[in-house]
Amino acid sequence: xxxxxxxxxxxxxxxxxxxxxxxxxxxxxxxxxxxxxxxxxxxxxxxxxxxxxxxxxxxxxxxxxxxxxxxxxxxxxxxxxxxxxxxxxxxxxxxxxxxxxxxxxxxxxxxxxxxxxxxxxxxxxxxxxxxxxxxxxxxxxxxxxxxxxxxxxxxxxxxxxxxxxxxxxxxxxxxxx
Length: 177
Prior knowledge:
This protein is mainly beta and 177 residues long. Helix content is 13%, strand content 44%. The protein contains 2 helices and 10 strands; from the N terminus they run H-E-E-E-E-E-E-E-E-E-H-E. It has helices spanning 13-18, 139-155, and strands at residues 24-25, 37-38, 40-43, 49-50, 57-76, 82-99, 102-106, 109-113, 125-131, 164-176. The strands form 3 sheets. Strands 4, 5, 6, 9 and 10 form a 5-stranded antiparallel β-sheet that branches. Strand 7 and strand 8 form a beta hairpin. The longest helix has 17 residues, at 139-155. The radius of gyration is 22 Å and the shape is elongated.
């Protein structure tokens, strides 16, 4: 069955349009019609991805890693006294998104979703967490942080750790198997 299936992220205008459609089981899918289909995710191949934060098997994930940074500005007031203005903010240091082909299945009916072609954006479950130097991140997130830190060291040794607090957080969205 060739079907027009739309998987979209929450921020897209079309996703807001799809919110107005009633969810339909895959067995009721129609060719070349915009529709919201609901079913169970089944791998098209044998190897799922594993989301770096949750470690769960999935057919799609999008992960963003942020590092807390601190900016300190010194200023002198009109009486000659010096003050420090401190601003802490979250700076994105890494992001990753992966797809794999899968089926959306409802009983014996299923629809193929070509996720590996990159044209599919998925509205899935969202996981988020944070980590600090005292609360170590999951291994996949730690690897993303380490990769970024190594890049920073290679390209900007003199200012690599300036303004860093050692605290990290991440957001993750995934479509789990």
